[in-house]
């Protein structure tokens, strides 16, 4: 389907991003796109747009034959699923920023696009203004992708920056992030790593053709980190980041996780600070490419949404080429990590879980152990979910992991 005529948009949501989209479209006639109607939840709220544009009846947009593009920018994942699935089912193109909804319904959304021969674009759902999805779709449209590694949640990165650089306690850093608008009133999706797991689910599909659920990804947030972890990081020259990673461990298996990670100064992620995002794409031929920018907020998100709207003028669709390479990648637990575990009671940590132990440190206030462990053993370890223990991955995984990478050459 191509769009030779002006795009007629039905917009769901008129928050900071929705209003930004409305204003830019009004001021940019060259985009050949205009909003016909806007569906909102609270009709009594004062808005900077003509009253006749607004409605609380979603069906007025969904059933309007003149609307050929639906832009969905709401927080409710269940309502977003109804909006998006209904729109695609009726042949309307859709732009969305709802990563939770997309990750939860990825398989159904892929089928809806095929069945109805329409386009569903969602660059803003992953890293705001950073064009991760478009790059994976267009530039890295082969099976030579070794890894995608990134800081893809700005809220946690802001909190960790304050903790690592300013010595702030977690609660104080979180409160400051909320005051500045970088963290929600209920920050649980961010700080527990769930938001990053949703985004990684989407990345896995575009990087390797893997259709998965967020619960398939091992995920630990930053709530269990202890102030002494930052002290250790500084002593060793590391910075602590919440990192999402997908990497090939052999010709068909991919490791996928979201975990606090010690990042060294040789990594581009080391200097990704405050609310910024950064993604490293590793390939066999081109080595590493780094993409950096703001991953959330009014203008970065608006930028990505507008880019998707503009692409629809030319009938652009994701082709999901990785699903047709002939290589059936899958998420695997058969790989190893080098980790640091700090705790109050060393007896809580079962040393037999480790393949090898590199270092043990015991003081009156805090203890830690570093070593190599199989991923499967780690995710099943009873001590992993103890709130008194913090687990941090070393970005450099060690000799056992290096051997895995050599097998790919």
Structure characterization notes:
The strands form two sheets. Strands 7, 8, 9, 10, 11, 12, 13, 14, 15, 16 and 17 form an eleven-stranded mixed sheet that branches. This protein has a six-stranded parallel sheet with strand order 3-2-1-4-5-6, sandwiched between helices. A hairpin with a 4-residue loop joins strand 15 (354-362) and strand 16. The protein is built from 15 helices and 17 strands. By secondary structure, it is α/β, with parallel strands linked by helices. The model is unreliable at 398-409 (pLDDT under 50). 34% of the residues lie in helices and 25% in strands. The two termini are 41 Å apart. It has helices at residues 16-27, 58-62, 77-89, 99-104, 106-116, 124-127, 132-138, 154-166, 170-179, 188-191, 194-208, 227-236, 298-312, 375-380, 399-406, and strands at 7-12, 33-39, 54-55, 69-72, 93-96, 120-121, 145-151, 218-219, 239-248, 253-263, 276-283, 287-294, 330-331, 336-343, 354-362, 367-374, 390-394. The chain has two domains: 7-122, Rossmann fold; 134-295 and 327-406, Dihydrodipicolinate Reductase, domain 2. It is globular.
């Amino acid at each position: 389907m191509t769009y030779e005529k002006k795009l007629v948009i039905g917009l769901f949501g008129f928050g900071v991003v929705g209003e930004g989209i409305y204003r830019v479209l009004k001021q940019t006639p060259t985009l050949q796109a205009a909003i016909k109607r806007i569906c909102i939840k609270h009709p009594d709220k004062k808005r900077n747009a003509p009253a006749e544009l607004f409605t609380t009846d979603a069906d007025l947009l969904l059933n309007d034959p003149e609307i050929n593009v639906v832009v969905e920018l709401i927080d409710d994942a269940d309502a977003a699923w109804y909006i998006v699935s209904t729109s695609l089912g009726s042949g309307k193109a859709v732009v969305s920023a709802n990563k939770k909804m997309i990750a939860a319904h990825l398989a159904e959304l892929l089928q809806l696009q095929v069945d109805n021969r329409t386009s569903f674009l969602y660059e803003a759902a992953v890293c705001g203004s950073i064009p991760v999805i478009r790059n994976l779709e267009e530039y890295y449209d082969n099976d030579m992708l070794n890894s995608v590694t990134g800081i893809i949640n700005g809220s946690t990165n802001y909190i960790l920056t304050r903790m690592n650089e300013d010595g702030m306690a977690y609660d104080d850093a979180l409160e400051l992030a909320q005051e500045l608008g970088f963290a929600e009133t209920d920050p649980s999706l961010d700080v527990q790593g769930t938001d990053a797991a949703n985004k990684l689910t989407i990345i896995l599909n575009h990087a390797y053709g893997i259709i998965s659920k967020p619960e398939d990804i091992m995920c630990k947030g930053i709530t269990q980190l202890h102030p002494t972890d930052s002290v250790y990081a500084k002593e060793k020259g590391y910075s602590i980041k919440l990192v999402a990673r997908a990497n090939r461990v052999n010709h068909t298996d991919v490791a996928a996780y979201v975990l606090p990670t010690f990042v060294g100064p040789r990594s581009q992620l080391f200097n990704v600070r405050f609310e910024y995002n950064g993604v490293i794409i590793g390939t066999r031929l081109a080595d590493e490419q780094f993409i950096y920018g703001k991953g959330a907020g009014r203008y970065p998100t608006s930028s990505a949404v507008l880019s998707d709207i503009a692409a629809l003028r030319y009938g652009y669709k994701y082709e999901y080429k990785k699903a047709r390479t002939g290589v059936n990648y899958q998420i695997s637990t058969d790989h190893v990590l080098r980790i640091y575990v700090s705790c109050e009671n060393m007896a809580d940590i079962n040393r037999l879980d480790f393949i090898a132990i590199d270092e043990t440190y015991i003081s009156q206030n805090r203890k830690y152990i570093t070593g190599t462990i199989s991923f499967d053993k780690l995710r099943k370890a009873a001590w992993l979910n103890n709130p008194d223990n913090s687990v941090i991955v070393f970005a450099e995984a060690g000799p056992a992991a290096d051997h895995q990478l050599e097998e790919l050459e």
